[in-house]
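Try this one yourself first.
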């Protein structure tokens, strides 16, 4: 698949099989994220790879609490890649967003489903989130940018929605 075909065919997956994802595939997805463009090449974004079910479920519960819901916002995905970025760099939100974008495309290329899940900011601003970072030895002023949930899709992806008109202007 070409890069362009990959961009046009990737879809957010919202139902996952419980099958484990091989570490080699997770590592490849993360590698793609580490090579994302970043402002002045400062590489402000980091990834926490969560494959431990207890921690995955803990993050899911924290995320659902931010929503005020009692659901699994991770759609049953067995892997959660949490992207945070160092707030000392002015481009940190963009850096983390590009990392997530690269990882979504890599996951699709590797036959994995993925979906960007928000509310990482609120999770890691909480005392519980800060404690998780401390337990990993992560120091500094990091903001949660997003979660990338990964796994094998339980259903076929929906076709692409038509693109809205009026989004391109030329001079």
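Now uncover the answer:
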């Amino acid at each position: 698949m070409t890069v362009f075909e990959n961009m046009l065919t990737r879809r957010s997956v919202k139902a996952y099989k419980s099958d484990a994802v091989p570490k080699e595939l997770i590592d490849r997805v993360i590698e793609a994220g580490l090579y994302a463009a970043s402002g002045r090449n400062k590489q402000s974004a980091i990834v926490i790879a969560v494959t431990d079910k207890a921690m995955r479920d803990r993050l899911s519960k924290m995320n659902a609490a931010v929503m005020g819901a009692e659901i699994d916002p991770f759609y049953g995905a067995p892997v959660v890649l949490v992207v945070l970025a160092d707030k000392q760099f002015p481009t940190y939100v963009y850096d983390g967003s590009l990392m997530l974008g690269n990882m979504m495309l890599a996951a699709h290329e590797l036959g994995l489903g993925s979906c960007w899940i928000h509310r990482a900011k609120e999770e890691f601003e909480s005392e519980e989130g800060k404690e998780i970072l401390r337990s990993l030895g992560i120091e500094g002023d990091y903001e949660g940018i997003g979660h990338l949930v990964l796994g094998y899709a339980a259903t076929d992806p929906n076709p692409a929605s038509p693109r809205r008109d009026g989004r391109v202007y030329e001079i």
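Discussion: The beta strands are 45-50, 79-86, 113-117, 142-151. Residues 46 and 98 are 12 Å apart (CA to CA).
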